[in-house]
Amino acid sequence: MSNLQLRSELLTLSSKLSVSRGILSTAQSHASIPVPPNSPAVGLTTLAEAVSAQQDALDHMLKILEKMS
Question: Which domain holds residue 37?
């Protein structure tokens, strides 16, 4: 796979993660506050953090690819 193809795939994944992050953010804002420890909203927060970390990792990979080009 060429750098251009890899960059394209990473941009697509980053875009999808961005949409997921927006959906999770909206869901979190509709969750009841304060959040009890066993609430599904705790899972949303964990999921949102995971999506954010994945998007950050993809953005880092894109920067590396840009330097390699």
Answer: 3-68
Spatial contact of 62 and 8, defined as CB atoms under 8 Å apart = no
Q: What is the pTM of this model?
A: 0.61
Distance CA 58, CA 17 (A): 9
Total structural domains in the chain?
1
pLDDT in tens, 10-62: 888 888 888 888 887 787 777 656 666 676 666 777 777 888 888 888 888 88
Q: Which two tokens stand for residue 56?
A: 């950050």
Calpha distance 59→22 (Å, rounded): 17
